[in-house]
Design goal:
heterotrimer; A mainly alpha; B mainly alpha; C mainly alpha; A: mainly alpha; Helix Hairpins; 3 helices; 73% helix; 0% strand; elongated; C: mainly alpha; membrane (chain A); Na+/H+ antiporter subunit C (chain A)
C-alpha cells in the first residue's frame, strides 16, 4: 500500500516536471522542473524495489543516491550556464524563435 | 495504527505533489525555490517511509540543502547581473497538459501493474554482503558491488566543476560583509560539521550514512564559509586547489590503471595485441566483460582501428 | 505503557503543540519580525520537548546524548539564522508592522 502511494506520487511528479519543463520559459524554473522530474523517477524506482514485509532492495537505494549526486552536479552546471545566458542576452530564457521586438536588427 | 500510517502516506504524497506544483507555478521565483527546498525535505520524509534511510540522508543534505543553496545563490546573482525583469506569467497550455495527463495515466497503470513484482537483487546482495567488508547493504552496493560507477562519479563532479570554472571567468563581486554573528557561528560550527562528516563516513559501514552524505555535509560547510565571506588565500587558489580537486579521480584512475596493468590479458588494456575476433568483444555476457567493465574502452579503440 | 512511556507521550504531545503554535504564528503574523518571533521561540521549545520525549524512549544514554546534541545545534543555528534574517530585513528597510 505504501509503495503504491509513493509510486503514483512519483508518476505525478514526473508529469508535473515534464509540464513545467516544456511550458515554463525561465531557465531557473526549467531547472526546478528537471529536479522535480528526477525526484519522481527516484520515487518510482525505490518504491517498486520494496516488498511489503521483506527487507528493502539496496540496489535501487544505491542507484538513487548516485542519481541525487549526479542531479546536483548537473543542476550546478545548468545554473552556471543560465547565468552566462542571462549575462550575454539580458534574459534568463532561451528564445529559439526570436520575435522582431526581442531581437534588434544589426 | 495501520489507518494512521496510510493516512500519513496519503497526506505526504499529496503534499509532495502540491509543493512541486506550487514550486513550478507560483509567480515569484524566490518563493518557488523555497517551496522546492520544502519539497526536498518532504522527499526525505518519504524516503524514511519507504525504509530508505540512506537515501533520506542524501536527499536532506544534497537534494534539499545543497541544491537549495545553489538555486538561491544563482537567483541572487541573476537579479544582480541582468535580468531583474519579471517574465510574463506563463499561460496555461491545455494541449501539453492533456497529453501529459494521458501519458501519466498510462505510466501510473504500468507502475501499478509492476508492484507485485518479486524481490530484486536483495537476496544476491545479502549473500555477498560478508565479502564486502561492511554490514550496511547500501554502502556495500555503492562502494563494492558498483564501485566503478560510484568512484567514476568523481569524474562527473570534476567535469561539472571544470565546466563551471571555465564558464564563470569573471570574479564575483564584493558582497556586503555577513556580520559577526555568522562569522562566530561558523567558527563554532565548522569543526562540528567536519566531525559530523567523519562520523557519517564511519557510520556508513554499518548504519545509514556513507561517503556521499559525508561529502554533502562537508560541501554544506564550504557553502556556509562562502556565505560568511570566507575566501581561500590567493596562494592556495591556483595550482594547489587544482591539484586538490584532481586527487580523488586521479587516485582512482591510478589504482584502476595499476590493477589493469597487473592483469593485461583480463583487463585488455594492451589493446594492440587483441583482435576483433576476441570472443570477449562479441559477447557482452562474456566473463571478461562482467568482471572488468573497464575493458569496454579498449574494445572501442579496437573497433575504430 | 509504564510511567516513563506516559511521560514521554506527554512531552511529545506538548512539543507537537508548540510546533502547531509556531506554525500558526508563521502563517498568521503580519510581518517578518513577528513571524520570526513565533517561529524561533516555539520551535526551539517544541523541539526540546520532543527531544526529551524521544530520549526517554531511547533507553540508552548514548542515543539520548546524541538527541540533546541535535537540539543544541538547532538552538545555535536557529538563533543565528533568525538574527541573520532579521538583519537582512532591516538592511532592506522592511518596516515593522504597526497596528
Amino acid at each position: 500500500m505504501t509503495a503504491a502511494f509513493y509510486a503514483l506520487a512519483g508518476v505525478a511528479l514526473v508529469v508535473l516536471g515534464l509540464y513545467g519543463l516544456s511550458v515554463q520559459a525561465h531557465l531557473l524554473r526549467k531547472l526546478l522542473a528537471v529536479n522535480i522530474l528526477g525526484s519522481g523517477v527516484f520515487l518510482v524506482l525505490v518504491s517498486l524495489g520494496g516488498q511489503p514485509g521483506a527487507a528493502p532492495d539496496p540496489v535501487p537505494h544505491a542507484m538513487v543516491i548516485t542519481g541525487i549526486v549526479v542531479a546536483v552536479s548537473a543542476t550546478a552546471l545548468g545554473l552556471v550556464l543560465m547565468l552566462k545566458v542571462a549575462a550575454a542576452s539580458g534574459r534568463p530564457t532561451l528564445d529559439d524563435a526570436p520575435k522582431e521586438d526581442r531581437c534588434p536588427k544589426e | 495504527m495501520n489507518l494512521l500510517q496510510t493516512g500519513f502516506d496519503g497526506l505526504l504524497a499529496l503534499g509532495l505533489i502540491w509543493l512541486a506544483w506550487r514550486a513550478l507555478a507560483c509567480p515569484d521565483l524566490f518563493r518557488g525555490i523555497v517551496l522546492f527546498i520544502a519539497f526536498g525535505l518532504l522527499m526525505a520524509l518519504a524516503w524514511v517511509r519507504l525504509e530508505a534511510p540512506d537515501v533520506a540522508l542524501a536527499e536532506a543534505a544534497i537534494g534539499a540543502g545543497l541544491t537549495g543553496a545553489l538555486l538561491l545563490a544563482a537567483l541572487a546573482r541573476l537579479n544582480r547581473t541582468a535580468a531583474a525583469q519579471t517574465l510574463p506569467r506563463e499561460a496555461w497550455r491545455s494541449g501539453p497538459a492533456l497529453l501529459l495527463v494521458l501519458a501519466g495515466a498510462g505510466l501510473g497503470l504500468a507502475v501499478l501493474s509492476l508492484i507485485p513484482e518479486p524481490a530484486g537483487l536483495q537476496a544476491q546482495v545479502a549473500a555477498e554482503l560478508g565479502r564486502s567488508g561492511v554490514s550496511n547493504p547500501v554502502t556495500a552496493v555503492l562502494l563494492n558491488f558498483r564501485g566503478y560507477d560510484t568512484l567514476l562519479e568523481l569524474l562527473v563532479l570534476l567535469l561539472a566543476l571544470l565546466a563551471a570554472w571555465s564558464l564563470d571567468a569573471d570574479p564575483p563581486r564584493r558582497e556586503a560583509p555577513a556580520g559577526a554573528v555568522l562569522d562566530m557561528l561558523l567558527r563554532l560550527l565548522l569543526p562540528v560539521l567536519v566531525l559530523a562528516a567523519a562520523y557519517l563516513l564511519w557510520a556508513g559501514a554499518h548504519a545509514p550514512g556513507g561517503a556521499f552524505q559525508a561529502g554533502a555535509v562537508l560541501g554544506a560547510a564550504g557553502v556556509l564559509a562562502l556565505l560568511a565571506g570566507w575566501r581561500l588565500q590567493p596562494h592556495l587558489t591556483g595550482t594547489p586547489l587544482r591539484l586538490a580537486v584532481t586527487i580523488g579521480p586521479g587516485g582512482f584512475l591510478l589504482v584502476a590503471w595499476a590493477f589493469a596493468a597487473g592483469r593485461p590479458a583480463a583487463a585488455g588494456i594492451s589493446a594492440g595485441t587483441r583482435r576483433r575476433s576476441d570472443p570477449a568483444d562479441r559477447d557482452p555476457g562474456h566473463p571478461v566483460h562482467r568482471r572488468h567493465p573497464g575493458s569496454a574502452v579498449p574494445g572501442l579503440a579496437a573497433r575504430r582501428r | 505503557m509504564t510511567g516513563p512511556d506516559y511521560l514521554s507521550a506527554l512531552l511529545l504531545l506538548a512539543g507537537a503543540l508548540f510546533f502547531l503554535a509556531g506554525t500558526l504564528g508563521l502563517l498568521r503574523f503580519p510581518d517578518v519580525y513577528t513571524r520570526l518571533h513565533a517561529l524561533t521561540k516555539a520551535d526551539n521549545v517544541g523541539l526540546g520537548l520532543i527531544v526529551l520525549g524521544l530520549a526517554l524512549q531511547s533507553g540508552s544514554w548514548l542515543v539520548a546524548g546524541k538527541l540533546v546534541l541535535i537540539w543544541l545545534l538547532v538552538l545555535l543555528a536557529g538563533a543565528s539564522v533568525a538574527h541573520l534574517i532579521a538583519r537582512g530585513a532591516r538592511q532592506r528597510g522592511i518596516p515593522e508592522w504597526r497596528r
